[in-house]
Design a protein that fits this description.
Pfam families: FUR (PF01475). The protein is of the alpha+beta class. It has 5 helices and 6 strands.
Length: 144
């Protein structure tokens, strides 16, 4: 058993989720990428092993449990990335900048850039803050 598998099994157990091949496969794919991963890409990669409904359920429960977070790209497609520590089913702490490349359409979690605190008027309750920057990523910039 490799380190990733052991880590993923522990993560699933901590969240009261059964260890299944499909769940481990999705976590392995998400962990292995340097940018957020779109649902269509996941469907393409796991399509022969996991049907679309099962994949959707896995992504939904992972998001509910604070294992992954979702960010929409410029086309409105859901993309997913593993949450950094501190997220749970009670609260996501992924208030960092997401960068959407206009050229390659990848979305990067810029975890070192936090969203500043925003003062909300009395009577309002913030559920989530999202900040998406768009432009050209480092890799695409080097090519241009």
């Amino acid at each position: 058993m490799d380190n990733n598998t052991a880590y993923f099994e522990k993560l699933l157990a901590q969240n009261g989720l059964k260890r299944t091949g499909a769940r481990l496969q999705v976590l392995d794919i998400l962990r292995g990428r340097d940018s957020a991963t779109s649902q269509p890409f996941l469907e393409q990669v796991v399509g022969k092993d996991v049907d679309r409904v099962t994949l959707y359920r896995i992504l939904r429960v992972f998001e509910e449990k604070g294992i992954i977070h979702k960010v929409l790209d410029n086309q409105g497609t859901a993309n997913y990335a593993i949450c950094s520590g501190g997220c749970s089913e009670h609260a996501h702490h992924d208030e960092h900048v997401h960068f959407n490349c206009d050229n390659c359409h990848r979305i990067f979690c810029l975890e070192k850039i936090s969203i500043p605190e925003i003062k909300i008027p009395a009577g309002f309750k913030v559920g989530a803050l999202k900040l998406v920057a768009t432009g050209i990523c480092e890799e695409c910039y080097k090519v241009s």
